[in-house]
Target: RNA methyltransferase
Amino acid sequence: MVSKNQIKLITSLQQKKYRYANKLFFAEGVKGIQELLDSNFELEHLYSTQNDFPEVSNNKKSIIDENDLKKISALATPNTCLAVFKMPLEKSIIATGLIVVLDSIRDPGNLGTIMRLCDWFGIQQIVCSNETVDYFNPKVVQATMGSIARVNVNYTDLNSYLQQTQLPIFGTFMNGENIYKSILPQQGIIIMGNEANGISETLEKLVQNRLTIPRFGSLQKTESLNVATATAIILSEFSRGN
Amino acid sequence: MVSKNQIKLITSLQQKKYRYANKLFFAEGVKGIQELLDSNFELEHLYSTQNDFPEVSNNKKSIIDENDLKKISALATPNTCLAVFKMPLEKSIIATGLIVVLDSIRDPGNLGTIMRLCDWFGIQQIVCSNETVDYFNPKVVQATMGSIARVNVNYTDLNSYLQQTQLPIFGTFMNGENIYKSILPQQGIIIMGNEANGISETLEKLVQNRLTIPRFGSLQKTESLNVATATAIILSEFSRGN
Model:
């Protein structure tokens, strides 16, 4: 059984302002919830249609029916479980290694996929513009497939952040150096731009190394790659070694 | 003005059986429609809230209001235009170059993104299992961003197809050869597996070259990459040259 107040609270967490007002967010699905439980995230309460997650004490979980799950889920086809977690305290930005900077990524699926990619390639830090979608958005949490527990995400004014960094700054453009022929360092900042507009003009001025992912084939008509697939190719190139 | 019969027909095209019964599909948005018009696709009828697309004759287009567009659109937030096209005749499978084989890709966004990637990397042929999502699905058409006009897609029984090919067959697995250290040919078949289950056991037996995209970082807990981002990395490696 889920009370009306609980339903009201949980559905409100689909909106950013209520997530930050309550310092809570939620995840759905066994795999994502398990990853968060195994990490440093503090469980507020777990709702499940099955008697699973034996490691969670009984006062922290409720067995509910599918109808109740539907009322609290953000998914069109709800999973078997939903867990509300406390938002962790914001950590400071890690200043070494490869850092991915996101300039106004708007699509939750793209942010989640990029977090999963960073996790795969051992990148610990993502720095987002304040306009980038919130990473506690349920659709982002869903798309990260647990990587949210392992990648540090901060939101800040990118112009100030990039002006103070000592690391080399990379960005991809149509007219940059062929990424396959570039020498890529093990430390640096990689800026990925907005889905529709790419890297903003203000930030473009701060890019020291302009890279291009070359197009192949005779037609050359594809205008651009999706930002998540472009990130995949770029992180692969930075990581593969020469 | 859109008639009731037109609304009924167009909304029915969201379902595969009606697309194939009517030999019609639709695209939404100026960019996607323009790409299809510029290619060999035959327009059935264009519906737009604006008097655009001057190259389309008046008997092939209707200016409609936003309310009518909403009735025929498959999008939560409709664009300004929707165009119904005739399905092209199926072309035979191109048997040279790099060929991407999809084993039961279910997510329309993933298929659309993979088509866009193939277009970027100059890959002309995708061969799908019969269980793979239909590429005329409106969500696929949307995600291809026009690449649907330039990549040949066929559906077939993959087991028979792979048994008769002369090309080397590649697939990615957790325990394959490091893709960054492998010699990759300019011709061959690359199998990408289902989102949840990977490459099916039947097809796995036909793979001659088992590849792995290595994970980096100390944690190594990410279980897998999204199939579209994995495809991005693999196609980049096959295309980049050594």
